[in-house]
Amino acid sequence: xxxxxxxxxxxxxxxxxxxxxxxxxxxxxxxxxxxxxxxxxxxxxxxxxxxxxxxxxxxxxxxxxxxxxxxxxxxxxxxxxxxxxxxxxxxxxxxxxxxxxxxxxxx
Length: 107
Hints:
Elements: H1 11-16, E1 22-32, E2 36-49, E3 56-67, E4 71-72, E5 75-77, E6 82-83, H2 85-99
């Protein structure tokens, strides 16, 4: 399996995908809810649809490889309902470190 950094709007990368039937991707999902917050990394397999000349890739498999603890969403001030962006930023940085990934690892 070939790992190619993915970005569908980048023509250089799209050109690299010519002739490749499938790619493995690493994604991150961050769920910031009104009550709880969590982060998850998943490895995904995208397969080309429509044969060798098709340009559409479809996610066929998704395997979670890391899930953070679920924690209460931090607020700056409960009365104002403003989420504490600095605390979220620290949470995300810590989750990346705990998982052993950096931002450049994510496709």
